[in-house]
Amino acid sequence: MSGGSADRIRELSRLPIWVAPMAGGPSTTALVAAAAQAGAFGFLAGGYKTAAAIRTEMDALRAAGTRNFGVNVFVPGSPASDGGAVSAYVRSLRADAARFGAEVGEPAWDDDGWADKVALLLADPPPVVSFTFGCPPPETIAELQGRGALVAITVTSSHEAHEAARAGAGSLVVQGREAGAHSGTFADDGVPHTRPGLLDLLAEVAGVTGLPLIAAGGIADAAGVAAALGSGATAASLGTAFLRCSESGAHPLHKAALADPRFTATTLTRAFSGRPARALINQFLLDHPDAPAGYPEINNATRPLRAAAAAAGDPDRMSLYAGQGFRAASDRPAAEIIDQLAAGTRAAQAPQDPKAPQVTQAP
């Protein structure tokens, strides 16, 4: 199974480079298509979209000739365990919203249209379906695989990796704490800052499963890709590196902030969504160092505030999600970024390790 999955991953793209799914706008059909044309593998981000919207994007990609792509879906969790703490935090945000003439949203729980999305992907599976925030039921994984999809589960610990492997996953996206945006951890507990870095986590996960591993988290350049492949990953997944590219649908203020010398560092925080996520440190994070666990309740509550800040041109109240290597993000077209990553990785791999996945010249 693991050997077959690894071969399948290599067949999906000419390069062991994945363009990570980035929910909320950055992952456009143009970015996924550009990645495929350049020899990489891209994902549609299913989070915060209806099943109908995902279908429209899948149809658009196929109509344009892109057959190899993935779709990422969020696994729903449970309602916040401390509703009182969530409500108190949301009340503390009213002054931030008021400065833009907005109101905070209702801190409601939802499952992000889970059943409809699973039904869509079972009826019309793309080559890869990946899951974040948890592991779907084994029967869902088996059904997707029975319909020809490779199932990849995002994991942030060896325990999660063992659970995903036991459920029948075909591959694991191993996400280190350096990753931008939301941590894919199954349970929002503990201190996210203490989770392992990517290379240490790859070694830990490799110790509990023989599944092919996709390295994710803070990889921003060719040296990072080469290090991940040299540590046993079948491919490397990059997100922040593509946030500023011309095909990215990230907000212009978000793109600009990644190159703005005023923003100097990132941190892990629950302040925007109630779930650990890495973002550029802006005034909102200084004013609200953290928040109680409560996803998607807090995410739903802050959405109008963040939208109003973006409309007002104020990046200091936006969720500027970014990985630790954000300064390497380039505003060039995605194909140029991928070409540079591939060339740099080839150079870094010389003399090549014959056991490592090799970055080969696209035909």
Would you kindly provide a written description of the structure presented here, covering whatever features stand out?
This protein has 363 residues and is α/β, with parallel strands linked by helices. It has 2 domains: 2-76 and 113-251 and 327-348, Alpha-Beta Barrel (TIM Barrel), CATH 3.20.20.70; 80-110 and 264-319, no CATH class. The protein has 14 helices and 11 strands. It has helices at 2-12, 29-37, 51-63, 83-91, 94-98, 114-123, 138-146, 158-167, 198-206, 222-230, 252-259, 283-287, 297-311, 334-348, and strands at 17-19, 41-45, 70-74, 128-132, 150-155, 171-175, 181-182, 213-216, 235-238, 266-269, 277-280. α2 (29-37) packs parallel to α3, α8 packs across α9 and α10 (222-230) crosses α14. The mean pLDDT is 95.
Topology:
Elements: H1 2-12, E1 17-19, H2 29-37, E2 41-45, H3 51-63, E3 70-74, H4 83-91, H5 94-98, H6 114-123, E4 128-132, H7 138-146, E5 150-155, H8 158-167, E6 171-175, E7 181-182, H9 198-206, E8 213-216, H10 222-230, E9 235-238, H11 252-259, E10 266-269, E11 277-280, H12 283-287, H13 297-311, H14 334-348
Parallel strand pairs: 1-2, 1-9, 2-3, 3-4, 4-5, 5-6, 6-8, 8-9
Antiparallel strand pairs: 7-11, 10-11
